[in-house]
Design a protein that fits this description.
Radius of gyration: 17 Å
Structural class: mainly alpha
Number of domains: 1
Low-confidence stretches: none
Oligomer: single chain
Strand content: under 5%
Number of helices: 2
Mean pLDDT: 91
Largest sheet: none
Shape: rod-shaped
Length: about 70
């Protein structure tokens, strides 16, 4: 059998693994934002909205600006 036939399947497998990892990372950041005590009155709402509407990019921003500092 030709080994090149399995390249598309490996690509799909790797892509699926990355997508699952990004989704889990996003969920962890969202749960952290919901449980964290923020200084400002509306800061929690702002971060939750950023995480919901900016998806994984918002999760990366949240990670470096908030989560990484604990």
């Amino acid at each position: 059998m030709n080994s090149l036939m399995f390249v598309p399947f490996m690509f799909v497998f790797v892509l699926l693994a990355v997508a699952i990892a990004v989704f889990v990372f996003w969920i962890v950041m969202l749960v952290d934002a919901l449980q964290r005590r923020f200084k400002g009155k509306n800061e929690k709402l702002l971060w939750v909205l950023v995480l919901i509407f900016a998806s994984w990019i918002g999760a990366i921003i949240y990670y470096f600006l908030v989560y990484n500092k604990k």
